[in-house]
Amino acid sequence: MRLDIVNPASEEVIAQLETDTKKAIQDKIALLRKGQNSWKQVSVKDRVACISGFGKLIQQNKQELAETLTKETGKPLQQSLNEITGAHNRIDHLEKYARKWLANETLIDQGATLEYIQYEPLGVVANISAWNFPYNVGYNVFLYALVAGNGVLYKPSEYASLTGLAFQEYLYQAGIPKDAFQVVIGAGEVGQFLLDAGLDGYFFTGSLKTGQYIARQVAPKMIPLQLELGGKDPLYVMDDVVDIKQAAINAAEGAFYNNGQSCCAVERLYVADNIYDEFVKHFVEEVESYIIGNPDSLETFVGPLTRNHQRGVLEQQVADATAKGAQLEIGGRKIEGKGYYFEPTILTNVKHNMKVMHDESFGPIIGIQRVSSDEEAVRLMLDTEFGLTAAVFSSDEARAKKVLAQMDTGTVYWNCCDRVSPNLPWSGRKSSGLGSTLSSQGIRAFVQPKAYQMRPA
Ligand code: NDP
């Protein structure tokens, strides 16, 4: 079968790729199974050296890679460049910490019984990935898995396949053996072949629906599974923010960067009653100033959505909200003409009986709700099945921390939002996922401990 790669800005087919058959995938797995035995014998230092070389190649070829990312996902070129530059921080982190977190740990080294822990790779793992930030979410898994000595079968999203193939090319150039890393190309049915294959770990980034399906498939196999899923992340702007305009600018960026197609995009805004009107005014002005259009231009901030069908989801959210009394401040419709464009959309006077405040939007749309106390804000922020991130803007650290302590999310932010650090674990609670990537925990996610109890004769 052939997979058409469509440019979301022009709707033109820009490439056609041969998808992997079940047989081809079985052959790749057999290759990886053999190769992983050698790869795990390579020292962590040398494995990290390969990853460093890969990072250098990516940075050297950044412009071309960014153009490819923009062509296949519609991400504005400046944001593609930012993603490639920014994702390098994962490599810096591995260079600093991989040896520390993968080394044996000795607990008792004298007396009758010596005790230590050895961290062994899982084996051959599947990395089923998303398209919205393929560098960030891909690196979080396949680079860490390789450094830990695993073989990796990487399935990019069908919407980021060219980027996935570029990863493969540069990993090989950097010295990662072909029998340690393989890409598989195709859509959902190819993902299904991977699930049927019985690998040694499944690491999935994507939607809740697919994540739940994968969890059901993997559970009887008793194999490690990690899920990085969606969110409906809230931001609460307190009445004590020093600069309301700046708060509005920062909140708008958190909501509309990458067209809102970020797992940790701000998807719900709660604003204190006495600054609400001024905040909304600045927020609307800021979003109206965004340049919408051709993603190949460095000036563009809002390009097309990656997937055409998401525009229908957004239209339904707007129709549902306005029918229930929300005020449409700007946007609300598809932009006519070529490309999967949707107007940046702001809804005010929203309530929690509206889809826009409950369901993941994953697009350029935000609901802003007025709140009259911290208690009301906390109650609304907690009213979600998701638990990825939550943010507070305030000049009062103690007050912000009191709210953040009550959040049931893997990450909390004070005066920032929509950001990921390789130093900290990236994890979702409830319907946002299982397990962690990044930080020491994200390195240890790709190994299994073996406890040694040793009595010298
Ligand atoms: P999907 O769930 O649609 O797809 C994710 C991956 O799963 C793709 O590679 C997809 O293949 C594959 N897939 C689809 N069906 C199956 C199946 N039956 N068996 C195995 N694999 C399958 O998610 P999206 O790609 O649309 O990503 C967007 C979602 O990802 C959002 O919900 C977002 O919040 C979340 N996300 C979470 C992150 C986090 O860190 N928590 C980070 C980034 C995104 P194909 O695309 O080829 O069909």
How would you briefly describe this protein structure?
The protein is built from 14 helices and 22 strands. With 457 residues, the protein is of the alpha/beta class.
Lay out the secondary structure.
Blueprint: E1 2-6, E2 13-18, H1 22-39, H2 44-60, H3 62-73, H4 77-102, E3 105-108, E4 114-121, E5 124-128, H5 134-147, E6 151-155, H6 161-173, E7 181-183, H7 188-196, E8 201-205, H8 208-218, E9 225-228, E10 233-237, H9 244-256, E11 266-272, H10 276-288, H11 310-323, E12 327-330, E13 345-348, E14 365-371, H12 374-381, E15 386-387, E16 389-393, H13 397-405, E17 411-414, E18 426-427, E19 429-430, E20 433-434, E21 436-437, H14 439-444, E22 447-454
Parallel strand pairs: 5-6, 5-8, 6-7, 8-9, 10-11, 10-16, 11-14, 13-14, 16-17
Antiparallel strand pairs: 1-2, 3-4, 4-22, 9-20, 12-13, 15-19, 18-21
Bound molecules: NADPH dihydro-nicotinamide-adenine-dinucleotide phosphate.
NADPH dihydro-nicotinamide-adenine-dinucleotide phosphate binds at residues 128-133, 137, 155, 157-159, 187-188, 191-192, 195, 205-207, 210, 213-214, 228-231, 263, 360, 362, 388, 426, 428, 433.
Which descriptors apply to this entry?
457 residues; alpha/beta; 6-stranded mixed β-sheet; 22 strands; binds NADPH dihydro-nicotinamide-adenine-dinucleotide phosphate
